[in-house]
């Protein structure tokens, strides 16, 4: 029987630029293969192929999705074997801690025809520059959108009952943990539940929360205390020795969108746009932050002002997504050149080598 597949993002296109959480997820692995090579060199295909093989053998795997291409993955982790394979090309550069002993570089550039690529040197340089400029424009636009979002939040922060928010958080700590604790150091992993991609916002919430006994859907407005509450709950889980998955906001990584504590079978997450979900099964419930923490009538009192700032925010986000789409266009043109220069039989040989080493690791376990 096939193992489980956990899908998430370890890097994202955010208002703080490209933001990486790769280190948190590969920490503790005994063997990490870092793939190097340009666009179109087969990194994602290699990762998917090996992931599928081990998943079909019954191993649980983690797939680290690519925020710049919804059809690609940037990493694979087989945690039971202590093995990871990650795309180590910019912008997700992985710093090795023990090169050769833990991390192994896999140079897929061995498979390309350099003479062929030299003929396209000027075009490659130009496309790479255009791609870089599009990403920079996207990040700058996301940053402007964040400032607009801050303006949006102020209407609610100025009308917030902080005492009620604190009481709600303490109440949740009591009900979620029931006074339990474990005598061990918590394993804390930082991730993204979704990302801003060239085709808009995407998330993995259904997959990540599958099989959990309880799911808590936090509803509310910007600035109603959702992220602050999640940070306090994550800290409580860690202090009590429970392993916790901390999911950061794909727009502003300084904020949180979800925490999962699998040892206690629960997830609690910001269930507002762009990752809006509603209860659909037993064990699902809503936590309404607006009703609990915000002064009655705030939406109505500032209706016109809030709508205006909301429209500004949406406009900025759409422009930023448009720039990500433009960057992907330049990337695809680069890929087309590299694909023509590749000898994929070399990539197949690397795939076999990595697969053979993982098999040795599995046999020694």
Automatic annotation (TrEMBL):
Taxonomically, which superkingdom? Bacteria
Q: Which GO terms describe its molecular function?
A: kinase activity
Extract the InterPro entries matched here.
KAP_P-loop (IPR011646), P-loop_NTPase (IPR027417)
Alphabetically ordered keywords of this record: Kinase, Transferase
Which parts of the sequence belong to the KAP NTPase domain?
32-176
The keyword ATP-binding is annotated on this UniProt entry: no
Instruction: Spell out the Gene3D superfamilies in the cross-references.
Output: P-loop containing nucleotide triphosphate hydrolases
Task: Write down the Pfam families for this protein, in alphabetical order.
Answer: KAP_NTPase
Q: What is this protein called?
A: Thymidylate kinase
Natural source organism: Sutcliffiella tianshenii
């Amino acid at each position: 029987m096939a193992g489980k597949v956990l899908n998430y993002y370890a890097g994202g296109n955010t208002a703080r630029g490209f933001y990486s959480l790769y280190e948190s997820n590969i920490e503790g692995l005994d063997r990490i293969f870092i793939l190097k090579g340009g666009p179109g060199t087969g990194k994602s295909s290699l990762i998917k192929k090996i992931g599928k093989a081990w998943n079909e053998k019954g191993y649980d795997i983690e797939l680290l999705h690519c925020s710049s291409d919804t059809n690609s993955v940037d990493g694979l982790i087989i945690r039971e074997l202590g093995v990871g394979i990650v795309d180590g090309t910019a912008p997700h550069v992985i710093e090795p801690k023990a090169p050769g002993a833990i991390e192994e570089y896999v140079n897929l550039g061995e498979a390309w025809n350099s003479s062929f690529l030299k003929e396209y040197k000027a075009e490659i340089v130009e496309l790479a520059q255009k791609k870089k400029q599009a990403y920079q424009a996207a990040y700058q636009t996301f940053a402007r959108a964040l400032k607009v979002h801050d303006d949006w939040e102020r209407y609610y922060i100025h009308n917030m009952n902080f005492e009620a928010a604190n009481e709600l958080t303490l109440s949740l700590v009591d009900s979620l943990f029931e006074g339990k604790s474990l005598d061990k150091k918590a394993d804390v992993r930082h991730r993204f539940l979704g990302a801003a991609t060239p085709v808009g916002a995407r998330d993995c919430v259904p997959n990540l929360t599958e099989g959990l006994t309880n799911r808590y859907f936090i509803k509310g407005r910007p600035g109603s205390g959702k992220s602050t509450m999640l940070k306090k709950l994550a800290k409580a889980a860690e202090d009590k020795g429970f392993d916790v998955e901390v999911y950061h906001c794909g727009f502003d990584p300084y904020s949180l969108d979800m925490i999962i504590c699998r040892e206690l079978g629960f997830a609690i997450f910001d269930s507002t746009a762009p990752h809006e979900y509603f209860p659909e099964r037993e064990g699902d419930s809503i936590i309404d932050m607006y009703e609990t923490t915000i002064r009655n009538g705030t939406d109505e009192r500032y209706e016109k002002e809030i709508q205006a700032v909301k429209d500004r925010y949406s406009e900025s986000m759409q422009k930023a997504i448009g720039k990500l789409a433009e960057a992907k266009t330049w990337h695809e043109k680069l890929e087309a050149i590299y694909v023509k220069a590749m000898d994929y039989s070399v990539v197949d040989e690397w795939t076999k080598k990595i697969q053979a080493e993982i098999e040795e690791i599995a046999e020694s376990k």
